[in-house]
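User: Run a structure prediction on this.
Assistant: Running it now.
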Amino acid sequence: MEATVRTATLDDAVPVGRLFTDLKHHHQALNPGNPRYGLDQEACEQLTRADLNDPAVTVIVAVLGDEVRGFAKLILEDKPWGLSCEVETLIVDEHLRGRGLGTLLMEAAEKTAAEAGALGIRVNVLRLNERARSFYQRRDYEAIAVRYGKSLPSVSSGG
C-alpha cells in the first residue's frame, strides 16, 4: 500500500489530534515533569482545529489507505533576512516509523516552504530524542542552535 501526502482539512482534526497526543506522550517520557506535555486528546484536537483554521499554519498529512498516519505542522514566518519555515511538529504513527512516511512529510514540507518563497527551513528536536535527531541529520539538517528551558514556579494572584 502506498502513502500519499496532502494538505489537512477539518475532517482530519480527530486523527491528527490523536497523533499529536501520541507525540506529547513520547515527549513526556523524554522530558518528565514538563507541563506542556500533559495535554489530553480533547485538548490536542481543539489545538488541531485552531491550527487548521489559522491561515498562518499549514498542516500536511500522510495518508495510508484511507487513514491519516502522520502529519507535519508548518509555520511560515517573516525574518529580517527573509521568509523562514518552521516545522513545528512532525509525527508518524509509532507502528509505521522507519517506513518512509516521515521522509514523505519532510519532502512535502520542504516543497511547500520553497513554493512559498522561504529561504530556509528549521525544526526543533528534544535533546534526548536521538531517533529524531538522526532522522533530520540524514536529510542534511544541521544543528544550528542550542535552546535552553527552565520551569518556573507558579505565581498565585494574591489579593
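The two ends are 62 Å apart (CA to CA).
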